[in-house]
Amino acid sequence: MNIYPLLDLYISTISSSRDIQFKKEFDPTFPDLRLDMDGFTKLLNKSFTSFQQAAKIITKLSLKMGEYIRFEKKKYPIFTMIVEKKRSYHYKHNLESITAKIDSIARFKSNEIILTSPLISA
């Protein structure tokens, strides 16, 4: 699956109902990948919703160079999606439970959510 249209869909959905400026920093070489669609869409929804009061949201998508995860004797690169600006802490528990179900990790800083997951090519 190509992740860009999915990210664009969520950005369009939120920007149509709120006056938020979006900036996208996407790696143009990012490959198609296999995802738990249901879990990943829930994760995107909660991530973007937690930032809905922000004036500007920056979304970054990239591969983590030099870092891998081993799964069933195979080595997979890791990708990271960062959504940044002031956010609501109300969604932290929901995000953590969703990431655990889809074999991802969510880290929280004061102004960003960092989502990390293995990149399993489609």
What attributes characterize this protein structure?
3 helices; 122 residues; Heat Shock Protein 90; alpha+beta; five-stranded mixed β-sheet; single chain
Give a quick precis of the structure.
The protein has 122 residues and is α+β, with helices and mostly antiparallel strands. 31% of the residues lie in helices and 37% in strands.
Question: What topology does this entry show?
Answer:
Elements: H1 3-17, E1 21-26, H2 37-49, E2 56-71, E3 74-84, H3 92-101, E4 105-109, E5 112-118
Parallel strand pairs: 1-2
Antiparallel strand pairs: 2-3, 3-5, 4-5
Helix pairs in contact: 1-2, 2-3
How is this structure best described in words?
This protein has 122 residues and is an alpha+beta fold. It has a single domain (3-118), classed as Histidine kinase-like ATPase, C-terminal domain (Heat Shock Protein 90). Helix content is 31%, strand content 37%. It contains 3 helices and 5 strands. It has helices at 3-17, 37-49, 92-101, and strands spanning 21-26, 56-71, 74-84, 105-109, 112-118. It has a 5-stranded mixed sheet. Helix 2 (37-49) links the parallel strand 1 and strand 2. Helix 1 (3-17) runs parallel beside helix 2 (37-49) and helix 2 packs antiparallel against helix 3 (92-101). It starts with a helix and ends with a strand. The mean pLDDT is 77.
